[in-house]
């Protein structure tokens, strides 16, 4: 039964990779969906939420948040004071440079609405508007920064590579690259880059997915994956991903999402009558 559920969720996630790339809103729709004062976000916390947020970020003015990033605002400290002046992060502070704009924006909304828990981030987002969140997403998505991550958890890099490239279906664990891209550089707006991320951060997120402390995945795929991983596996895959080059900035900004008519047709098995979609 667990195998059926995990593979079913994986199939659903594969669908969203294709569907998410083709969901395009007009500028007016994007701003209506995610701009101005804090929205209740209920309609956006659907499987394709990151895609909507990515469209809003594409309309955002990054110059409006440059002061916030470098100097902070009022009682809110600068983004760069924790994430670095090039978005490179450190230790358990995540690298932001090159992550998808929609993904970053969604995480900020999730902190604001307590769907993702972190005292520091919840304090920071209290002072942000929806427009600022979208602008921050675009700013970091467009940023180019070499990786400063290095393996440091004494993980087995060969085992980490196996999990990243092939997964382990004896544990019902799909390959990381199945959703996060063949180079670990992310896919679309919903699946962030993993390559070049700090191993302590990656490990702690897997531990949070496993314990249930982090639970902002609509179909709980990451919870199910993390539940199947041992302590050794989590350290190994975190170290392996840290050894890889980081995603280049700009490619995940979501500013060139193809229109639905530009996407290749999705082939379906003869027995398939319906499809559905969702995110990480």
From TrEMBL:
InterPro entries: Cyt_c-like_dom (IPR009056), Cyt_c-like_dom_sf (IPR036909), Cytochrome_c_Oxidase_Subunit (IPR050597). Residues 248-280 are annotated as: Disordered. PROSITE patterns: CYTC (PS51007). Residues 1-30 form the signal peptide. Keywords: Heme, Iron, Metal-binding, Signal. GO terms for molecular function: electron transfer activity; heme binding; metal ion binding. The keyword Metal-binding applies. SUPFAM superfamilies: Cytochrome c (SSF46626). Residues 60-144, 155-245 form the Cytochrome c domain. It holds the Pfam family Cytochrom_C. Residues 270-280 have a biased composition (Polar residues). This is Cytochrome c553.
């Amino acid at each position: 039964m667990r195998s059926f559920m995990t593979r079913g969720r994986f199939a659903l996630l594969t669908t969203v990779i294709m569907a998410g790339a083709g969901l395009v809103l007009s500028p007016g729709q994007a701003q209506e969906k995610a701009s101005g004062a804090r929205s209740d976000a209920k309609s956006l916390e659907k499987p394709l939420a990151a895609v909507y947020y990515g469209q809003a970020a594409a309309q955002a003015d990054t110059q409006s948040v440059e002061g916030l990033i470098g100097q902070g605002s009022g009682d809110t400290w600068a983004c760069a004071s924790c994430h670095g002046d090039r978005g490179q992060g450190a230790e358990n502070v995540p690298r932001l440079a090159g992550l998808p704009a929609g993904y970053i924006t969604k995480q900020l909304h999730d902190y604001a609405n307590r769907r993702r828990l972190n005292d520091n981030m919840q304090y920071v987002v209290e002072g942000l508007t929806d427009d600022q969140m979208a602008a921050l997403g675009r700013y970091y998505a467009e940023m180019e920064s070499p990786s400063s991550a290095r393996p440091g958890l004494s993980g087995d890099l060969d085992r980490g590579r196996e999990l990243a490239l092939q997964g382990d279906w004896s544990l019902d664990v799909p390959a990381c690259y199945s959703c996060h891209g063949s180079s670990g550089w992310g896919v679309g707006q919903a699946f962030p880059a993993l390559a070049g991320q700090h191993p302590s951060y990656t490990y702690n997120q897997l531990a949070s997915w496993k314990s249930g402390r982090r639970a902002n995945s609509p179909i709980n795929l990451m919870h199910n994956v993390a539940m199947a991983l041992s302590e050794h596996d989590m350290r190994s895959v975190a170290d392996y991903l840290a050894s890889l080059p980081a995603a280049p900035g700009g490619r995940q900004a979501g500013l060139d999402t193809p229109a639905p008519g530009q996407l290749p047709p999705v082939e379906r098995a003869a027995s398939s009558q319906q499809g559905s979609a969702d995110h990480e």
